[in-house]
Amino acid sequence: MKNILLDLIKEKKFNKLKEELIKLNPVTISEIISGVPTREETIIYRLLPKELAVRSFSYLESEEQLRLITSFSTGETTELIDELFFDDLIDLIEEMPANIVTKILQASTFENRKKINHFLSYPEESAGSLMTTEYLSLKEDMSIGEALKYIRRTGKNSESIYTAYITDKSKKLLGVLSLRSIILSELDQQISDIYKSDDIVTVNTLDDQEIIADKFKKYDLISIPVVDLEGRLTGIITIDDIVEVIEEENTEDMQKMAAINPLTDKYMDVNSLDMAKKRIPWLLILMISASFTSGVIGKYEHTLALLPILNGFIPLLMDTAGNSGAQTSTLVIRELSLGNIGVGDWFKIMIKEFKVSFLVAIILSIVNFLRLYYLEMTLFGRVNKFEIAFVVSFTLFFTVVLAKLVGALLPLGAQKLKLDPALMAGPLITTIVDVLALIVYFYLITTFMPV
Amino acid sequence: MKNILLDLIKEKKFNKLKEELIKLNPVTISEIISGVPTREETIIYRLLPKELAVRSFSYLESEEQLRLITSFSTGETTELIDELFFDDLIDLIEEMPANIVTKILQASTFENRKKINHFLSYPEESAGSLMTTEYLSLKEDMSIGEALKYIRRTGKNSESIYTAYITDKSKKLLGVLSLRSIILSELDQQISDIYKSDDIVTVNTLDDQEIIADKFKKYDLISIPVVDLEGRLTGIITIDDIVEVIEEENTEDMQKMAAINPLTDKYMDVNSLDMAKKRIPWLLILMISASFTSGVIGKYEHTLALLPILNGFIPLLMDTAGNSGAQTSTLVIRELSLGNIGVGDWFKIMIKEFKVSFLVAIILSIVNFLRLYYLEMTLFGRVNKFEIAFVVSFTLFFTVVLAKLVGALLPLGAQKLKLDPALMAGPLITTIVDVLALIVYFYLITTFMPV
Fold first, then answer.
1. How far is A257 from chain B (nearest CA, A)?
2. Which residues in chain B are closer than 8 Å to A201, comparing Cβ atoms?
3. In chain B, what residues touch A161 (CB-CB under 8 Å)?
4. Do residues B416 and B382 make contact, with C-beta atoms less than 8 angstroms apart?
5. Where do transmembrane segments lie in this chain (chains A, B) (predicted)?
């Protein structure tokens, strides 16, 4: 496709080019634009009908947007600002360097500049920073016929016309009405007769994006009204922005579970110094807490010196304990964040983990025993005494059970203490079960082995 | 709210109860229903207007649905089946025990039974199993006015009326048209003049849900048409189902990264035996591969026996290497799955990880050196020779750098080999960098220390 279009440019067949372009959807156009040289990019962009041009623009990566907007005349900038949906405009301003922001603000009306400044003051990740002000609002005393006429006249400027919001004179939100209900009602019915006024799902301007995403999921919404503390409608948030938020929140959780303080940008956009800053804190904490393991081993130095073969099993025990614990804590952290379980379920979870860990531990320790006692002897001619194979496998059994119980309790405990389970339980689980594994190991050695 | 309603039942004020109920939205009602005893549940459900009753039903957990449906008369079952959206009906049938499925199928028309059987034959997680057949379809030769009339007449039975699909006589998909465009067009325009026919975004009945979710995200869709291999429209998928898919896919990735074979149900719904089966395979593989670490340590047994203090630092080195590697691999796996980076970016990623790891490694090893050489001496009176502190910290430096490079290469390699990075790279990263850490440690010991 791209090559066909580039050929048309080369042959200066601009009419044919325009014809081909308007068949495409804005996402495809944005992909094409970002793959061609600047000159061709500008030609393509200028041939697009205004609305398609602006919509394609909103799908570009910010560096592409920068490249294009730098080449814009004042008139073109004004046009872009007029046509962009307000939330896309705010996103754009947040991404652009200062000189371009100045250019954008100069091309905006006074009214718009005021609104932009107000929007930029909402905290990041709040409903205020996600919402758009271009929603469809209806009055109570309209008939369905009048409402439809009104929608036909003004709908072009609303980001979503599929939900209408009914407000009074002071902009207080009275109710919501889906376009579906409007379309399916008789023309002479009154809005006030059919709109839903009780039990409206709303969010507050300062609500965190995680809360908003949860409401979208729970109520299967395609948009949600945002109200201020006085119940006045200040904007709406649409589902396409929430899909991004859901991915962002999931990314954040995964990063926290891997002991990284969440990045605010994409991997490639974070410079190395900032990246290092996000990673060092937990690595330091975990490194220093690993001294406990050194401490435990140090205490049993003389035992190990007498039977150095016992050394070799420490990594195996620590790794298996860490993996078992991580399995459980990941499951519990995820279920907590999806709201499928709560702290109140702790007893049921412990029972389940106890049963599962028992099964898992039995199998692992039997396999391990057979491997140590029979296989290593046969294959490598290395003789592991029965006591050694027994103590190692017995330790394995206990540590797997312990690791799974700790793996379940740690995130539940974090949640109970109002700490973030992903951040608290994710990174710490391995260190904690490592120490437990060593304590069990040395306890069993001193109990069962004749040192 | 629940208590008010229960009081109304106790006082037998059913009219007032009904009045209160119809103000609520279906999600709230489903929450109330699932929190009350069976008798009250049935009373509330029966007081609801048909549509609200069915919509509330579709939000219930499957055990609640089972409880209710068991108490239904044949007439009520038929009503439920008639009113449920087809995809919810399929979900219901998939969840219910055999005797209830029989009851549902008996209450269905012959036509519906055929359709149900056809739907049940689509593979799980395919577009076919996610789609609904209740979409809005228009003909090319309608005018906007006729289309609107048609929508008003038939819209009640469509799950989504916000996108209309234009098909020919053989059901081949010709184009799509948003309700927005219909509403904003003149009544005497022809559908054929305004619908979009090129560059339609579709999915195939057999496409995996991950592909579908990606298209929703990329194109900001609220519904997508599903076509068969001949391009005939077979159904549509709506955004609310895709939001669930996105969460499912993320959950699956997290489980894979924690060395669990993905669960197909919620944690609480999986029995202990199945749960153990999902966890044992990777634990076994990882336990057995941990023999490499035992092997490395075994080879240096005599060195460790001469200087047993060196033992104590092994967990610290392994843990820090594991954590560093996991940080990088988690970031890379996640960015790969979001499509933000590709295998082709490997060189840029390696450069970035090299810089980051250098910064991180320097800081960690300096802190570690100071702690070992000065602090432990002062605080615990324990003397660590300069050589020991030096070798441990030097090892730390190299292993952190190595761990980060391996953490980046492993998922990229898995992707390149068309293996799932989350499954392959997630669980293995710790084991691999553990072995590397030990090799570096013993190499540096034998090089720098007079043993």
1. 9
2. 25
3. 180, 183
4. no
5. 356-374, 386-410, 422-444
